[in-house]
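Predict the holo structure. Ligand: 6-O-phosphono-beta-D-glucopyranose.
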Amino acid sequence: MAAAAMTAASSTAVTASLLTIFGATGDLAKRMLLPALYGLECDGLLSNDLRVLGTARSELDQAGFQAQVADAIHRAVPAAERDEAALTKLLNRLSYHPASTDDAESMAALCRRIGELRNGPVVFHLSTAPRWYAPICAALGAAGLAGSGTRVLLEKPIGHDLASAIAINDGVAEVFDENRVFRVDHYLGKEGVQNLIALRFGNALFEPLWNARHIEQVQITVAETVGVEGRGDYYDHSGAMRDMLQNHLLQLLCLTAMEPPSQFDPSAVRNEKLKVLRSLRPIGRDSVATHSVAGQYTAGAVGGVAVPGYSEDLGRSSRTETFVGLRAHIDNWRWSGVPFYLRTGKRMPRRCTEIYLQFRAVPHSIFAQTGAQVQPNALVIRLQPEERIELMLMSKTPGLDRAGLRLSQVALDLDLHEEFAGHRRRLAYERIYLDALEGNGTLFVRRDETEAAWQWVDAILDGWAHSGSTPKTYPAGTWGPNASVTLTERHGHSWRE
Ligand code: BG6
């Protein structure tokens, strides 16, 4: 059930009266969270009573915080498109209270402030380093602020591996029951990702073909042109596997591969995703060499602009991967034998997030005598930079060839921006905040999902560590190391580029 479809009665009962953002002066808040709140404000989707309390270490007063928020919105929204009345309304909802998460006295003062401001359910959004999640929850619990009607939103990464994820989840669970813990994967808030759900389960056409009998291979690509953009300290401890694959790519894999849930509701959807994660064939010490590739970019050019390598970006040498490519298998009836190729990398030639499903070839070509090549059909679901669905089909090439039909591959092409031209492009966090404020957990990640994902990823990381291999280099502006090409070509497949 989409948040918007909730009944007025049920939504009033859970709709938050206060959103408290920890890390409210941070980069994520400025680039995404506050602009998302502004977007919801413009569309009249925030309840009139909602208050927003920002907190961070910075010693700001309310006016200082309001000025920071106004500045963030000014940067995010061009003046010509800005709704000044909505911005003023948002600014009037804001309060700020400085606090140090490691100082009991200061947390207690913050909690008193929260107590004064709340007038019903509260959402706590922890946009801080994950090591603070359990201590912040403990402080909220001690102050009596974690009872029913409160929810906590946790940013990724939840930990660094399975053990640390369990420790964080256990710490949070001491205070908040699981159904009040909303783990954010902002990819689930993207319009294109939800469209994948709509495409699969709103159409009867694809389901009969959505299985190993008809699908030859699946590729999921999340390619970025950016480098580490000043986030080197975080990124170097994380790498592409922990930063992107453990969460965003595995979520895309789940939505692509899961069985139809009985309803679009939190339990049904997340139960199906979990089954996919638990069916992933482990890639461990004996198979990392053949099923995985780690890469790191060196100096090169992206979009015609020269860029430094990762170690120059970082200021020191490093063994952290900025690219990962995998050949995964889902061991269940639906997907038996179908490779799922996953890849993600920084400093790729272009920004592109897409899911590519290649169907099996026709069982027999009636055009063989004329030499016409029948290429397999494919479905391409493009999520970024534009939302687009392409169905690749074979068609007759126009002409009067005497030797027989000539064929070409053509695309049935649905450009969703064109189709829904009057609709504003939304930030993923608009969906995330709307659902969190209204208590709908469908597009959030459940504890068992995140832990199953870590378990699978940990085995690969262990395999890499055990082999002692270092990431293979690739020049910035290319599609990753050569070994990534081999990963697919060894099996008669090739990456879509
Ligand atoms: C974040 C990662 O989760 O996702 C970043 O930490 C990455 O490294 C970002 O750049 C990509 O998100 P998007 O929405 O730009 O595809």
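The first strand starts at residue 18 and ends at 22. The chain has 17 helices and 17 strands.
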